C-alpha cells in the first residue's frame, strides 16, 4: 500500500506505532486462543518480526457461528498513515485439512498484477506479516492439547472493515491491489516519518510498472505535480505515474535496476532547484538550494548583474521564479531570456539525473508552475540550450 504522507500533529517525542501486519498477528493469536480455549481474554502478547514482544488490547473478541472473531485497533503512533485507528480483524475457524490456512477477507486487497512480492490472485498479505500471523497462530496451537482440536487444521481470514475506503487514500489500485489495503510490515513497528517505508513504496511502484511492460514512468514530487503530469501525458497508463516525493533518486535507480527505458520527472521550482545541484533527496531537512549556482546559470543566460545578485540572495525557489518573472516587466532591465533560463535549469537537473543512473535510462525533466502549467522542459528541440 502506498499511502499519502501527512504531517504529524506532534513535533516533539514522536511515538512509534505498529504495522497492519503486527495488528493482524495479534488479532489472529487472540482468535485462535479463544477458539482453542474458549477463554475471552482482553489482551494478547505477540512476538513481532523484529523479535520484540508487545501486548495489544483487544477491540473485540466474539464467538460466532463461523468461529471466533478478534480484532485490534491499529495504533500507528505518530506515523502519518491513513490506516491509523482502523480495526484489523481475524476470523479463526476449524479447517478439515492439517495446517494453518490463511486468506484475506473484506477490506484486504487482492493482487491482480504481476511485479509484487505475491503472485496474482493471492490476498495482499505480504510475506513477513504472513509468516508472523502463521507463527502466532501456531504458537497457540502448539500450546494446546490434542483433545482441544475439533478439526486437524485452522482457517484464518484477515479482515479490515474500513480497508476499501482507506485504500482510496492510496495508489494501491494502480499497482493492481484491488478491494482494500495490503497487510504490511517487515519489523512490526513503524517509525514516524519512516523514510525507508516511503522509499520502498517508490521502488515497488517502479518494479510493478516494469513488470507490466511499461517502459516509461513519470516521477512526480507531489499531488499537484502528478495531476499536471497526467494532464500533459493523458495517453500513459496511470500505473506509470509515481509520487516519488523527496525520493526521486530512489525512483531513478529503481528505473535503472528494473530496466525502464525512460523516466520523466515533473517538479515545481523548489524541488527542481535542489536537483539542479544533483541532490536527488529533496526533503526540507536535507540539502538546501544552491542559490549561487542558480545565479551563475542566470549569468550564463545573460541576465543583468543586479538580477543575478538578487537570485544569489533569494530565500526560496519560488522567490527565484518571481524574480526572473518580474525582470520581464521591469524596464530597467534589458529583455531577459527567461524561458531559456528555466530550460537550462531542467537541463542541469537532467544531466545530474543521467549521471545518477550511469546513463542507463533516458531522462526528461519538466518544470511546472504552481497552477500546474508547463514552464520548461528538457530535452527540447533547440540543441544550443544548456551548453554550459
Automatic annotation (TrEMBL):
UniProt-listed Enzyme Commission number(s): 2.1.1.195
Domain of life, source organism: Bacteria
Pfam families: CbiD
A Gene Ontology biological process term: anaerobic cobalamin biosynthetic process
Catalytic activity line of the entry: Co-precorrin-5B + S-adenosyl-L-methionine = Co-precorrin-6A + S-adenosyl-L-homocysteine
Keywords: Cobalamin biosynthesis, Methyltransferase, S-adenosyl-L-methionine, Transferase
Pathway: Cofactor biosynthesis; adenosylcobalamin biosynthesis; cob(II)yrinate a,c-diamide from sirohydrochlorin (anaerobic route): step 6/10
InterPro entries: CbiD, CbiD_sf
Transcription recorded as keyword: no
EC class (word): transferase
UniProt GO molecular function: cobalt-precorrin-5B C1-methyltransferase activity
Family: Belongs to the CbiD family.
UniProt xrefs under HAMAP family: CbiD (MF_00787)
UniProt protein name: Cobalt-precorrin-5B C(1)-methyltransferase
Amino acid at each position: 500500500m502506498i499511502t499519502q504522507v501527512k504531517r504529524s500533529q506532534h513535533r516533539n517525542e514522536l511515538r512509534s506505532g505498529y504495522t497492519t501486519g503486527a495488528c493482524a498477528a495479534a488479532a489472529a493469536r487472540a482468535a485462535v486462543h479463544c477458539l482453542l480455549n474458549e477463554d475471552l481474554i482482553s489482551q494478547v502478547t505477540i512476538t513481532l518480526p523484529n523479535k520484540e514482544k508487545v501486548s495489544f488490547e483487544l477491540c473485540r473478541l466474539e464467538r460466532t457461528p463461523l468461529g471466533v472473531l478478534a480484532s485490534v485497533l491499529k495504533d500507528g503512533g505518530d506515523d502519518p498513515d491513513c490506516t491509523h485507528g482502523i480495526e484489523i480483524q481475524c476470523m479463526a475457524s476449524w479447517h478439515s485439512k492439517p495446517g494453518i490456512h490463511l486468506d484475506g477477507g473484506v477490506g484486504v486487497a487482492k493482487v491482480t498484477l504481476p511485479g509484487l512480492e505475491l503472485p496474482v490472485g493471492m490476498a495482499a498479505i505480504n510475506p513477513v506479516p504472513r509468516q508472523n500471523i502463521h507463527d502466532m497462530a501456531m504458537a497457540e496451537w502448539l500450546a494446546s492439547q490434542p483433545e482441544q482440536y475439533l478439526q486437524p487444521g485452522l482457517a484464518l481470514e484477515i479482515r479490515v472493515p474500513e480497508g476499501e475506503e482507506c485504500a482510496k487514500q492510496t495508489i494501491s489500485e494502480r499497482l493492481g491491489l484491488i478491494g482494500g489495503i495490503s497487510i504490511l510490515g517487515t519489523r512490526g513497528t513503524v517509525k514516524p516519518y519512516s523514510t525507508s517505508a516511503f522509499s520502498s513504496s517508490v521502488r515497488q511502484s517502479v518494479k510493478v510498472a516494469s513488470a507490466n511492460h511499461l517502459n516509461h514512468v513519470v516521477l512526480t514530487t507531489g499531488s499537484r505535480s502528478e495531476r499536471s503530469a497526467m494532464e500533459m501525458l493523458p495517453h500513459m497508463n496511470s500505473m506509470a505515474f509515481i509520487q516519488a516525493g523527496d525520493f526521486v533518486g530512489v525512483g531513478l535507480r529503481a528505473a535503472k535496476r528494473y530496466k525502464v527505458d525512460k523516466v520523466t520527472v515533473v517538479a515545481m521550482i523548489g524541488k527542481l532547484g535542489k536537483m539542479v545541484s544533483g541532490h536527488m533527496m529533496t526533503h526540507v531537512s536535507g540539502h538546501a538550494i544552491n542559490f549561487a549556482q542558480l545565479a551563475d546559470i542566470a549569468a550564463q543566460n545573460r541576465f543583468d548583474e543586479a538580477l543575478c545578485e538578487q537570485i544569489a540572495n533569494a530565500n526560496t525557489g519560488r522567490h527565484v521564479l518571481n524574480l526572473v518573472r518580474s525582470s520581464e516587466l521591469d524596464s530597467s532591465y534589458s529583455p531577459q531570456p527567461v524561458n531559456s533560463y528555466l530550460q537550462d535549469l531542467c537541463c542541469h537537473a537532467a544531466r545530474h539525473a543521467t549521471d545518477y543512473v550511469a546513463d542507463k535510462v533516458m531522462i526528461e525533466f519538466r518544470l511546472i508552475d504552481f497552477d500546474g502549467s508547463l514552464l520548461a522542459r528538457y530535452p527540447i528541440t533547440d540543441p544550443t540550450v544548456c551548453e554550459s
